[in-house]
Amino acid sequence: MFTPHRTVATLTLLFATFAANAQETASDEQSSLPDDLMNQCLKIAVTGAGKEMSVGALREVCNGLAQSEAGQQSSVRGALEALDQEDTSETQSDPTGNSRLLDRRLSMEALNRANRFLLTPHKRNYLLPVSYQEDRNTAPYEAANSPLAAPQSTEVEFQLSVKILIREGIFGDNGHLYMGYTNHSLWQAYNRDISRPFRETNHQPELILSFINDWEVFGFRNVVNEAIIAHQSNGQSGDLSRSWDRIMFNSVFERGPFAFAINPWYRIPEDEGDGPDDPTGDDNPDIEKYMGNFELSAAYQRKDNIISLMVRNNLSSNNRGALELGWSFPVSSTVRGYLKVFNGYGHSLIDYNHHTTAVGLGITFTDLF
User: Fold this and answer.
1) Domain-by-domain residue ranges, the chain?
2) Which residue of 19, 62, 135, 228 pairs with 248 in a disulfide if CB–CB is 3.0 to 4.6 A?
3) Mean pLDDT throughout 162-188?
4) How many other C-beta atoms are found inside a 10 Å radius of the C-beta of residue 122?
């Protein structure tokens, strides 16, 4: 689920080879790297490690990745394939027998924190060459006298989402501060009549304080808890301007092949201004009525397929919000196919108060896990 990088790929091969050898011994003891492989791992990882990353922390990352690979690779052939593709057919189990779906992602993120030359994927990164949206929202463009008042129903949709570590271990060995950025774009690539413009681009920078966790709650493992300050804007002005600021909390849980996240938020109030033409005023004062004040997301992995669900609502009687279904599946060693179906409000910020159904098909470069 991470962007290709030679250091990560080399370590993946190293750990997978170790896993293949370890399985031949049929040992029931917890996997741990032998001295020679540990030295190789440290030589690779230390080349990009930040000054805050201790040798002990690097050793823990190496052992953690080795344990993850031990549950995922079954042969030396699988180890070679790991250079190009992550095996998602199996997941590590804890001592109680519950599968740990997100351990591989957490281990790889720990390694990325040791390499200051890496950007870590944040949300899904995908490209949908075909994204069809019925019942186009033309009112904002008509009010702005924009050529996009007559958009095509089929366009290109893509998302780029990354984060970078700012500070590690603020509270002892936990509490990692990241800066994240997500770009979600809708491109009228097939609309030659109006010179193929970008219909909408949403920018979301975030400041994320992340805590790795291992609590058991009603049989589910609480893996990560995050406090987030987020700004989202479409970068427009006048009648097309949309933006809001939020304080968000995100908690991720897993059990077996199932994972889910609870993400409530509080909107930071804005001044009303002196009317719709006042640039200092609130562009969308009723956005919470449509976009809600929380989001629930879930994912289920079966072999190489991942089924995902997102529900957004405000728990009010008007029942506005959104529902999104996703399915990702293997296509090649570097990308996965991705089908996304969205129904509701807020497919993009310009459509925050417009109900629509959008169906997109394409590829994802970094998946959920």
Assistant:
1) 6-113, 120-366
2) 228
3) 94
4) 21
Cβ neighbours around 354 below 10 Å, total: 18
Cβ neighbors of 29 (< 8 A, separation 6 or more) are none
324 - beta bridge partners? 310, 342
Q: How far is CA 358 from CA 138, 279, 344, in A?
A: 15, 31, 9
Asked whether 137 and 350 are in contact (CB, 8 A), the reply is yes
d(CA 236, CA 251): 32
| Catalytic entry in 74, 233, 251, 355 | 233
Q: How far apart are CA 213 and CA 221, in angstroms?
A: 8
Q: How many CA atoms lie within 13 A of 109 on its CB side?
A: 23
**Is 241 among the residues known to form the active site?**
no
User: Per mean pLDDT, which range of 203-207, 272-276, 365-369 is the poorest?
Assistant: 272-276
| Selected catalytic residue, list 231, 251, 316, 332 | 231
Q: Tell me the pLDDT tens digit for each residue of 52-106.
A: 566 777 777 777 666 544 544 443 344 334 434 444 444 455 544 445 667 666 6
Provide the 3-class DSSP secondary structure of residue 147. helix
| End-to-end alpha carbon distance in the chain | 6
More confident: 135 or 241: 241
Is there a contact between 204 and 242 (Cβ–Cβ < 8 Å)? no
CA distance 9 to 89: 19
Distances (CA, A) of 293 to 41, 43, 232, 247, 350: 44, 47, 14, 11, 18
Phi, then psi, of 268 in degrees rounded to 5? -75, 120
Query: 10 Å Cβ neighbour count for 174?
Result: 12
Number of other residues whose CB lies within 10 A of the CB of residue 27:
10
Q: How do residues 300-335 score in pLDDT, each as one tens digit?
A: 999 899 999 999 987 775 768 999 999 999 998 889
> How many residues comprise the chain?
369
Question: Does 233 qualify as catalytic in the annotation?
Answer: yes
**CATH class for the region spanning 120-366:** mainly beta
